[in-house]
Specification:
Layout (H helix, E strand, L loop, with lengths): L2 H25 L9 H4 L3
């Protein structure tokens, strides 16, 4: 394989891993620990 192909596949894999982790944190079990700042200042 050419180095440019390996680099682009590696970057795409890293981006997909970060995106998957962000979705897991946002909607998975750890999301129960997140705090909504708008609820803190609710009048």
């Amino acid at each position: 394989m050419e180095p440019a192909t390996v680099l682009s596949i590696s970057i795409a894999g890293i981006v997909m891993a970060i995106t998957g982790y962000a979705i897991y944190i946002s909607f998975g079990p750890p999301s129960a620990q997140l705090d909504d700042p708008f609820d803190d200042h609710d009048d």
